[in-house]
Amino acid sequence: MAGTICFIMWVLFITDTVWSRSVRQVYEVHDSDDWTIHDFECPMECFCPPNFPTALYCENRGLKEIPAIPSRIWYLYLQNNLIETIPEKPFENATQLRWINLNKNKITNYGIEKGALSQLKKLLFLFLEDNELEEVPSPLPRSLEQLQLARNKVSRIPQGTFSNLENLTLLDLQNNKLVDNAFQRDTFKGLKNLMQLNMAKNALRNMPPRLPANTMQLFLDNNSIEGIPENYFNVIPKVAFLRLNHNKLSDEGLPSRGFDVSSILDLQLSHNQLTKVPRISAHLQHLHLDHNKIKSVNVSVICPSPSMLPAERDSFSYGPHLRYLRLDGNEIKPPIPMALMTCFRLLQAVII
Fold first, then answer.
1. Mean pLDDT of 215-236
2. pLDDT in tens, 167-191
3. Where does the signal peptide begin and end (predicted)?
4. Which end of the chain is more exposed for a tag (fewer CB within 10 A), N or C?
């Protein structure tokens, strides 16, 4: 039980790390004594809550254009409108913006005026989900920490798009139209602090190349990925959460070491074409292998041998760290092999 609690706390820590620096900056204290009467102007199309003077709510109003944004605004909500363009002019005084939500509009790449977004030097969060984008917009402000582009029509990432985004920690490109030739070897160059990359629900057949070295959460569910290159994980030595559910992975498509990668704590390979349980690391805690074509569990192959460095001896005194194993939806018939329980003495749940 203690181990499970520790794992949950670690997951929350990792996920929260992506947000923490941004949250601290977004919620800085504002000194209203520095504002003039003009700072409290409110566009007639929007709502300005008196108790939250740095926020501007313009969502669900059928807007076709972005109104002029007052200089005091930090948080701008424009989701669920009919906006097609992002021109520079409405933002010319909005030098303090940290957060823009433009989800569920009709914005295209042609509608984004060059410089309209990059001029926002303090912007941290940009939400452009559920629009009509066909490529990742560029240029973007260097300050940006989270870029949310889910459910667009993105099939292209222009060269150099991310070259100046060293502060970006989260990039969400799920449910777009990305294919393998959308990536060059230097596509992600510049993303020095990226921790979470989501490219689920695209049309990838191969693993994306040369991912940022600090990537800790990699989500590639619902693609058509058939294999993983040898030594692929050497480039992302910190990856802890790897999701490859609903792909076309086979035994032949896996590296010779399988997933024997010490950084991976949570591995999800559900709904693939595996016939054997792949090799795993002694550090792995959660393993999802349901709905594959596995017929039996060869414990002698999958039982990892932890390294016996002095610093790790106490950590592995009870054996490998696996606590959760899912094998249902395969061709395995109970009972569970006793050797499995002997190897993974910390197992708390096995679904078969």
1. 97
2. 999 999 999 999 999 999 899 999 9
3. 1-20
4. N
| Residue 285 neighbours by CB distance under 10 Å | 22
E-strand stretches of the chain = 55-57, 75-77, 99-101, 125-127, 146-148, 170-172, 196-198, 217-219, 241-243, 266-268, 286-288, 324-326, 349-351
Contact at 8 Å (CB) between 151 and 176?
A: yes
pTM over 0.85: yes
CATH architecture, domain 226-301+318-351: Alpha-Beta Horseshoe (3.80)
**pLDDT beyond 70 at 236:** yes
Average pLDDT of the segment spanning 139-151: 98
| Record: fold of 133-206+219-223 | 3.80.10
| Max Cα distance, the chain (Å) | 75
| Structure tokens belonging to residue 329 | 């939806």
CA atoms within 13 A on the CB side of 344: 28
CA distance 114 to 157: 16
Distance CA 68, CA 64 (A): 13
Q: For the domain 41-131, what is the CATH code?
A: 3.80.10.10
Tally DSSP H helices, then E strands, for the chain. 3, 13
What's the first-to-final CA gap in the chain, in angstroms? Answer: 21
Condensed to tens digits (0 to 9), the pLDDT of residues 21-32 reads 544 445 454 544
Residues contacting 124, CB < 8 A, separation 6+: 22, 25, 26, 98, 99, 143, 144, 145, 146
Give, in degrees to the nearest 5, the angle at Cα 164 between 174 and 11: 45
Closest CA to 320 of 276, 270, 286, 274: 286
